[in-house]
Amino acid sequence: MRDVHDVLTVLKKDFPRVYRKHEALGKEIHEQSGPLDEKVRWLIKISICGHRLALETHILKGREAGLGDDEIAHALLLLIPTTGFPAFMEAYSIFKAIDR
Description:
The protein is an all-alpha fold. The chain is about 75% helix and about 0% strand.
């Protein structure tokens, strides 16, 4: 997947070793550390993400893994009783703004 955000490309250039270690840790946790299938892992990451840039990335990677927009929207709706309506609205606005 291409870098969704330019700042990630800059980080890779400025701190290649740090980025490689970060990437390896993420891969180990995401792919090797438990029984959840890929779609479920991305739904969880989407629903708990608290940062705009990361949420956009997780949504795009979730779509690549086969998530439908209805599944992503449902995961975001679960934010309402958990973290509140304002958190949902922020996440939902990010979701709706992503270009396809």
